[in-house]
Structure formats: C-alpha cells, structure tokens
Amino acid sequence: MIESLKIISVVIIAILKKDLLQERRTKETFIPILIFGMLVILIFGFAVNPSPVVLASIAPGLVWVAFVLAGFLAANRSLVIEIQEETIDLLLLAPIAREFIYYGKLLATYLLMLFVELLMLPVLAILFEINLLNIEFALILMIATFGLAVVGTLLSAISVNTKAREVMLPILFFPMIIPIIICAVASTELVLGGSGLGDIRGWLQMLLIFDIVFFVLAGLCFDFILEE
Q: What confidence tens digit (pLDDT) does each residue in 56-73 have?
C-alpha cells in the first residue's frame, strides 16, 4: 500500500514538474494570464465610482471576476499545450493510470492560478482600498481556486479535441463554477466587513464539498474523457 502510494506520488509529481519547468522556460501561459488579469482589474478600477461606499459593495464581486477570468485562461491552456506540441500521445502511452495525468495537470494549473492571483492581490488592494491580508481570505482563496482548477482542468480535457474548443470551454466552465463564485463572493464580503473565521465556516464547508465531489468525479471520468 505504501509502495503504491509512493509510485503514484512520483508519477503525479513528475507530470507537475514537467509542466512547471516548461512554463518556467517558455512563460507562454503565465505572462498572458498575468497581463490579462491586470487589465481586467484596471478596467474595473477606472470604470466604477471611486466612493468608499460603492467600492465596499462591489469589491468582493470584482475580486472574484478578475480571478475567475484569469483562472479560465490558465485552465484553457492546461492540455492545449500538449496537443500543440504533440506530446499528449506520449502521456497516454505511458504505463500509468490516466487519472494520474489529470492530478498532475490539476496541480500545475492550481499552482499557476494561485501564483497569478497572489501577484494580482496588491493591485486589487490598492485600487479598491481593501485589506486582503488575513487568514480568512487566504483560506477562501486556496479552497475556491482549487475548485476552479478542478473544474477547469477537467473541462479542458473535454473540449480540447472539439472543433469549437474556444466556444465549448466557456459554455461549460462558467455555469459549472457558479456555486464556487457564490460561496467565494459571499464569504469574501463577510471577511471584508470584518467577520471572522467562524462567520464564514459554512461557506468554506460548501466550497470544500464542491471541491471534493468534483475532484473524485474528475478522477473517475478522466480515462473515459481521454479515450473519447
């Protein structure tokens, strides 16, 4: 049992390292996502009324709109690169369970999303005059972003071989992450209003349930999706 877990972890980490090293070398996903995320923030920052009352009411939604749009681009690229570089067949021919490919891709997408979001946080804090440096928001960010990565990586695999990939992925992605957005925005609003961890526990639990359910389902379905 322990030996099997070691093998599984080695395989997943190998895929994760491959993706991260490739991104570090080319930066063809990170740079466009970061620029796009910053542009979204700046557009919202200059488009809304700068009064404190207005900013306080819309800031939670704007924060997560920026994160979701940036995360969508990250998820979109998770398997597209493998198709473009014709390395997907090598992954599929490897003597490993297909769900391990998903887990490695998921972790790479998740870490990329988190890194971009962390770089966006100072700009959000300055433009919208909000304090996001607290443990409550950190928990919301990590749990909600993991859910975005879980759904995005799975749907990227579903849409990657379709003729209308650019249209199919957003049609599938945005409706499926509505529960994440609702929980993330509601809990962020409470945190920005001064609420503590106890006040957002219910929202965090719902986010965790969503993450766990989709994580398990994605692992079970990934082999079938790749075969299709």
A: 678 888 899 999 998 888
CA 118 to mean position of chain CA atoms? 13
pLDDT band of residue 46 (cuts 50, 70, 90) is confident
Mean pLDDT within 137-165:
87
- Total domain count, the chain: 1
Asked whether 19 and 104 are in contact (CB, 8 A), the reply is yes
Q: Which domain holds residue 135?
A: 2-227
Task: Rounding to the nearest 10 degrees, give the CA dihedral for residues 92, 152, 179, 188.
Answer: 130
| Sign of the C-alpha dihedral computed for residues 140, 143, 146 and 147 taken in this order | negative
**What pLDDT is attached to residue 223?**
75
What are the C-alpha distances in Å from 151 to residues 46, 54, 216?
Answer: 31, 32, 11
Q: Which residues of 59-70 are buried (b: 16+ CB within 10 A; e: fewer)?
A: bbebbbbbbbbb
User: What is the rounded distance in angstroms from the CA atom of residue 76 to the CA atom of residue 159?
Assistant: 9
Alpha helices in the chain (DSSP H): 2-26, 30-47, 52-84, 88-93, 98-128, 135-159, 165-176, 178-192, 197-227
Residue 78 near residue 108, CB atoms below 8 Å:
yes
Q: Is the pTM of this model over 0.85?
A: yes
Question: What CA–CA distance (Å, rounded) separates 137 from 7?
Answer: 35
E-strand spans in 78-179?
none
